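Work Package 3 (structural annotation) set out to generate three-dimensional models for the target panel prioritized at the project kickoff. During this period the team completed the workflow that converts sequence records into C-alpha cells, so that structures can be stored uniformly alongside our sequence database. As a representative example, we reproduce one entry of 145 residues exactly as it appears in the project archive.
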Amino acid sequence: MAAENLLPREYGYVIFVLVFYCFLNLFMAFSVGKARKKYKVYFPTMYALESENKNAKLFNCVQRGHQNSLEMMPKFFMLMILGGIGYPLTCVALGSIYVISRYFYFTGYSTGDPDNRMKIGKFSFLAIIGLMICNILFGVKLVRG
C-alpha cells in the first residue's frame, strides 16, 4: 500500500493515540449525558442557568470540561497527524501525556470545582507546546530538504 511506503513504521502508534483520544471523547460525552439526566438540563440547553437550576454549576463544570476538550481536539489532531510524520515516537509520548492529562482535566472539572481541572490537567498544555515544537522542527526539516 502507498501509505505504508510513505509513512514511518512507527506512525501506527500515532494512529493508536488518536483513537485513544476518540474513546476519551466518548467517555466525556456519555458523562455529559448522565449529568444532563442527573441535574435535569435538557437539550438544546447548552449550559444551565443558576437562576433556574440549583445544580447549574455542577452541570456546567461537566459540560465545560467536555466543551474545552472539543475546542482543543482539532489542534491536537493536527499537531499529532503532521508532527507524527517527522517525529512519530516523540509525538506518541507527548500525545499520550496529552490524552491522560485531558482525562484528569475532565474528571477534575467534573467535581464542580474548576480549580481541580489543573492539578494534573495542566500537563496537557505542556504536551501541546511539545507537539508544536515537533511540528516546527519538522517544518524546518522539510524546508531545508
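DSSP finds five helices and no strands in the chain.
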